[in-house]
Design goal:
Helix content: 25-40%
Protein name: Uridine kinase
Structural class: alpha/beta
CATH superfamily: P-loop containing nucleotide triphosphate hydrolases
Number of strands: 7
Largest sheet: 5 strands, parallel
Order of helices and strands: HEHEHEEEEHHHHE
Distance between the termini: 23 Å
Strand content: 15-25%
Strand order of the largest sheet: 2-5-1-6-7
CATH class: Alpha Beta
Radius of gyration: 16 Å
Organism: Pseudonocardia hispaniensis
InterPro entries: P-loop_NTPase
Shape: globular
CATH topology: Rossmann fold
CATH architecture: 3-Layer(aba) Sandwich
Amino acid sequence: MDGRRIAELAAAVRGGRRADRRLVTVDGFSGAGKTELATHLGVALDAPVLTLEELYPGWDGLADAVPLAVEWIAEPLAAGRPARWRVWDWERGVRGAWHELAAVPLVVLEGCGAGARALRPFTRVAIWVDAPPEQRERRLRARADWPGYAPFRTRWAAQEEAFHARERTRERADVIVDNSEIVNNSD
C-alpha cells in the first residue's frame, strides 16, 4: 500500500467535517484490499482496527453483522462506553468469547458491509476500496485461507452483490480508493 496514499487518507480523516464521529469504515468486495488498507490506516491514525469478520454469523450472515456492529461497537463508542462484541467461532459455527475495546476517539472498522447506512450516523469517513473483479479473484485465491473460503465463495459473492446494490455503499462512500494493480508493459 502506497505510504503517500495512506497519509492522504489519514489527513482526510483528521480533517473530516464529522470529527465528532468515531468510525472510519473501509468497505468493498472480497479481495479488494480492505484489510491491508485498514491496517495501514489504523497505524497512521494510531487507531485500533476491528473487522466485521468477527461479527458475521457464518457464511450467510453478511447483512446480519451490520445491526450487531451498530449495537456492540458503534452505539457504545458514540456514548463514550467501551465496545463489546462476541467473536464468531468459524470452526464451531457459534458465538465465542466476548471482546472489549475501551472507548477510544477513533476506530477503523473494515469488512464487507462496513459502509452500511445503519453505520453512517457513527461514521466520520466512509472509504470504499475498488479493484477489478479478476484482480480480486486472483488475490482471494492467493490467500492462505482460500481453501476454507473456496466452498463458500459463490454464496458470499451473491450476498456481497445484493448487499452493496441495496445499500449503495460505493455510491455513498466519502472516499473511493482505486486499489487495482498497476502493470508496467513497457519492458
